[in-house]
Write a structure and sequence with these properties.
Elements (H helix, E strand, L loop, with lengths): L12 E4 L6 H12 L2 E4 H9 L3 H24 L5 E4 L8 H10 L1 E6 L2 H4 L3 H4 L11 H11 L8 E4 L5 H19 L3
Parallel strand pairs: 1-3, 1-4, 2-3, 4-5
This protein binds adenosine-5'-triphosphate, (3R,4S,5R)-3,4,5-trihydroxycyclohex-1-ENE-1-carboxylic acid and magnesium ion.
Pathway: Metabolic intermediate biosynthesis; chorismate biosynthesis; chorismate from D-erythrose 4-phosphate and phosphoenolpyruvate: step 5/7
Organism: Robertmurraya beringensis
GO molecular function, one term: shikimate kinase activity
């Protein structure tokens, strides 16, 4: 049996990057502009447990959260024509990196520390991985995570850009790539 490659235009789009860089915000906008389903992986897991992520971490621990994250993403990465926003730690797992880079088009949203640090107050309450760490420890985590985000197809620098502008840029770049690599 021959397995047909999914056309580039039908591959799902995946957003990766550190907590708070805008994966959910921009993912939603891109999905709307491309008329696709939007799936936020953290939200899928939260719905399954009926609790916010910080509560899930308390109840079952990070290891079990990561196992669920792997199960959900490996399954959903096979879906076509969707936009998936991953949790900031998802690419720590090799199986997730492989599933997403093989099945989908992966965009790394790259926000520098200078801009990122101004967002801490917006996200700290709902991100258990940030809680209990001082600013130097958060910077260390931010730096140490950058290597896992190098597994991508496209990197988008987002400093000082509005979410709408970033989403427009991503949609335009996708259309150019589709036309170049798989002209109609
Ligand atoms: N381009 C932007 N400019 C300014 N603020 C933004 C931008 N994109 C997102 N934000 C804000 O930053 C915060 C974090 O955004 P968002 O929840 O989309 O991040 P995330 O990458 O999905 O985080 P996580 O990995 O923790 O789920 C939100 O309050 C959002 O409104
Ligand atoms: O960066 C991380 O390790 C995490 C990011 C969030 O999106 C959630 O997936 C969870 O809070 C863990
Ligand atoms: Mg998110």
């Amino acid at each position: 049996m021959t397995v047909r490659e999914v056309p580039l235009r039908e591959k799902s789009i995946v957003f990766i990057g550190f907590m708070g860089v805008g994966k959910t915000t921009i993912g939603k906008l891109v999905a709307k502009k491309l008329y696709r389903d939007f799936i936020d992986i953290d939200q899928v897991i939260e719905e399954e447990y009926g609790a916010p992520t910080s509560e899930i971490f308390k109840q079952i621990g990070e290891k079990a959260f990561r196992a669920k994250e792997k199960e959900v993403i490996t399954k959903l990465s096979k879906k076509k024509l969707s936009v998936l926003s991953l949790g900031g730690g998802a690419f720590l797992q090799e199986d997730i990196r492989e599933a997403c880079t093989k099945n989908c088009i992966v965009f790394f949203l790259d926000l520098s520390w200078e801009y990122w640090k101004d967002r801490i107050s917006l996200i700290i309450d709902s991100r258990p991985v940030l809680q209990g760490r001082n600013i130097d420890e958060i910077l260390e985590l931010f730096n140490s995570r950058q290597e896992i985000y190098q597994y991508h197809h496209s990197r988008v620098k987002t400093d000082s850009q509005e979410a709408e502008e970033i989403a427009d840029y991503i949609v335009d770049s996708l259309k150019v790539a589709w036309d170049i690599y798989e002209p109609r």
